[in-house]
Write a structure and sequence with these properties.
The complex is a heterodimer of chains A (about 325) and B (about 325). Chain A contains nine helices and 13 strands. Chain A has about 325 residues and is α+β, with helices and mostly antiparallel strands. An eight-stranded mixed β-sheet of chain A has the order 4-3-2-6-5-1-12-13. A four-stranded antiparallel β-sheet of chain A has the order 8-9-10-11. Classes of the chains: A alpha+beta (about 325), B alpha+beta (about 325). Chain A: GO terms for molecular function: asparaginase activity; beta-aspartyl-peptidase activity.
Chain lengths: ~325, ~325
């Protein structure tokens, strides 16, 4: 019998001026989710089930950029996406363009378990959701005041905003060129983030899940890395990985898949694989990831100035952190 | 001095060895025609991105392949097309899904890559994007062929998702695990070592509306980096979980395999027999076209004069 391990994240790239109370809220949410996962693992819930229940919690809480609290499209609506993968047989499920399903990660799971396909999107996905009887709400449910305000500011700045503000010198051009982002904003400046969870259970089974509302002010119909198997999410017999950050960079570098590929083909361990991938695969991109291995290890890696994360192992190690 | 190379496919799957002439010959002719197009484009110095786009456009326009015109139908009897394209040098990429009126999905994917800050647009919004950019659109009925209406009927009768190269004849194809074909793709490398890959499809016969397959997913159906360019075809669900196109490059990078070895290994280990195939070229001008299905419509050419147009495994 192996040892379990779990990690959660609430996004990579954090404004160093983030108010303390927001930092505290984030840490509390991460801690709560971690504890949920730990309790489940202690009662021998399987990795894939733990991933789903933890991500559901992250989606339901409006703090991070997923489910309720998702970033808004250019039209002020919410379009969510998510993916989940079970490392054991590499089964996977993903959804995009979700507008009324309360928990996209659960819909992704249903795609994996109850449909002959791996990925459903937009109205086809919503129809599948209704047939499956999942919880449906109005799109307004997902929209928070904070994000409405943020969208307005972004439109004024007329740039695509990653859903966090990054200081100069550590960001894509679109963000650094926008001065508004550097001065404090009149409304709460907490920047919401993609969420994810990776788990290895006592049987050594790895699983991963990622969920998001995407980029603030994104074009309607824009799909990012979170629902793309191999980019935002991947799990194999060896590991489970969930990524966050600049979606386009994560897609180009097939980030989540590469962690596993490096382990499989170069025979290195989890830490080395994550370090390698973060250092060498993200050429001009900024991102972070969390990963677990079938040996009960957990690793976080990011090349930005911070990542909301929490991790715990059966040995009793537990950490919730934001900065280096 | 390395030479150029180009390879293209019109889908892999359970292609019966007794495929009647009237179904085989038009496809072989089309493959040869597209190959010639690719060859002259490379000879006139066109960049592989342009080469792969124009070859895939040609395949999309041809009604006998499952992309663009001739796309298989969803459960509702509609078309939902998807495509992706990738530039090996910059790793820039573009993808689209859920298209119903865009004549050439691969060109829209290229537009997403070049004209938006994003990589992937889908469904209504992708269609709107096409219109605002003056991309050629037509009535959906343009894409629907009598053959595919018959295939859908047959699939519904058997109440299962079906491979789209089953001849609509009374003979029920051998149950080979529902092997799938369809999808078109092209990969190319020029003498400077620039690489590109593009893939386009209508998806699975009788698929659920909103179902996305491997073709628009970077790393699954399409991939290109500084080592190679890959376009895959087959059962989407297997190709996605195996990140098949990326796998070829990963094996070359991390295990030092040659293109041929990496491509063969990737196909062999991606799933059971009858699930996939791919075409690939390397920065060195090599070509590989492995498949674990009964057949794969394919063609390739290299600068030294070698050309091949084939359907079944070479003896």
């Amino acid at each position: 019998m192996g040892k379990w391990a779990i990690a959660v994240h609430g996004g990579a790239g954090i404004d160093p001026n983030l108010p303390v109370e927001r930092q505290e809220q984030a840490k509390q949410l991460l801690t709560r989710c971690l504890n949920l996962g730990i309790a489940a693992l202690r009662s021998n819930v399987s990795a894939i089930d733990v991933v789903e229940l933890v991500v559901r919690e992250l989606e339901t809480d409006p703090l991070f950029n997923s489910g309720r609290g998702s970033a808004l499209t250019e039209q002020g609506t919410v379009e969510m996406e998510a993916s989940i993968m079970d490392g054991t047989k590499r089964r996977c499920g993903a959804v995009s363009g979700i507008t009324t399903v309360k928990n996209p990660i659960s819909l992704a799971r249903l795609v994996m378990d109850k449909s002959p396909h791996s990925y459903l999107a937009f109205s086809g996905a919503e129809e599948f959701a209704r047939k499956q009887g999942v919880e449906i709400v109005d799109n307004e449910y997902f929209v928070t005041e904070d994000n409405v305000g943020m969208l307005k500011l972004v439109k004024e700045a007329n740039s695509i905003l990653f859903d966090y503000r990054i200081p100069l010198g550590c960001a894509g051009a679109a963000v650094t060129d926008s001065p508004i982002l550097m001065n404090g904003l009149p409304i709460s400046i907490y920047a919401p983030e993609t969420v994810g969870c990776v788990v290895v259970d006592r049987e050594g089974r790895c699983a991963a899940g990622t969920s998001t509302g995407g980029l603030m002010n994104k074009m309607m119909g824009r799909i990012g890395d979170s629902p793309l198997i191999g980019a935002g999410t991947y799990a194999s017999e060896l590991c489970g990985v969930s990524c966050t950050g600049e979606g386009e960079a994560i897609i180009r570098s097939t980030l989540a898949r590469d962690v596993s590929a490096v382990m499989e083909y170069k025979g290195v361990g989890l830490q080395e694989a994550v370090d390698y991938v973060i250092k060498h695969r993200l050429d001009e991109g900024f991102a972070g990831l969390i990963a677990v291995s079938n040996k009960g290890e957990v690793v976080c890696g990011f090349n930005c100035n911070g990542m909301f994360r929490g991790c715990a192992t059966e040995d009793g190690f537990m950490e919730v952190a934001m900065w280096e | 001095m390395v030479g150029w190379a180009v390879a293209l496919h019109g889908g892999g799957g359970d292609i019966p060895i007794d495929l009647p002439d009237e179904r085989r010959i038009p496809r072989e002719t089309a493959l040869r025609h597209c190959l010639d197009l690719g060859i002259s484009a490379l000879k006139s110095g066109k960049h592989p991105l342009d080469v792969t786009e124009l070859v895939v456009r040609e395949l999309e326009n041809h009604p006998d392949f499952n992309a663009g015109k001739g796309s298989v139908l969803t459960a509702q009897g509609t078309v939902e097309m998807e495509a992706s394209i990738m530039d090996g040098k910059t790793k820039s990429c573009g993808a689209v899904s859920g298209l119903t009126t865009v004549v050439n999905p691969v060109s829209l994917a290229r537009l997403v890559m070049e004209k938006t800050p994003h990589i992937y647009l889908a469904f209504d919004a992708a269609e709107d994007f096409a219109r605002t950019h003056g991309v050629e659109t037509v009535e959906s009925s343009h894409f629907i062929t009598p053959e595919n209406i018959a295939r859908l009927k047959q699939a519904k009768e058997f109440n299962r998702v079906q491979l789209d190269y089953t001849a609509p004849t009374p003979k029920e194809p051998e149950i080979f695990g529902d092997s799938q074909t369809g999808t078109v793709g092209c990969v190319a490398v020029d003498s400077a070592g620039n690489l590109a890959a593009a893939t386009s499809t209508g998806g699975y016969v009788n698929k659920m509306a909103g179902r996305i397959g491997d073709s628009p997913i970077i790393g699954a159906g399409t991939y290109a980096n500084h080592l190679c360019a890959v376009s895959a075809t087959g059962k989407g669900e297997y190709i996605i979980r195996a990140t098949l196109a990326r796998e070829v490059a990963a094996l070359m990078e991390y295990k030092g395999l040659s293109l041929t070895e990496a491509a063969a290994y990737a196909v062999e280990h991606s799933g059971p027999r009858g699930t996939c195939g791919l075409v690939a070229v390397s920065a060195n001008g090599e070509v590989a076209m492995p498949f674990n299905t009964n057949g794969m419509f394919r063609a390739c050419a290299t600068e030294d004069g070698y050309t091949e147009v084939a359907i079944w495994p070479k003896k």
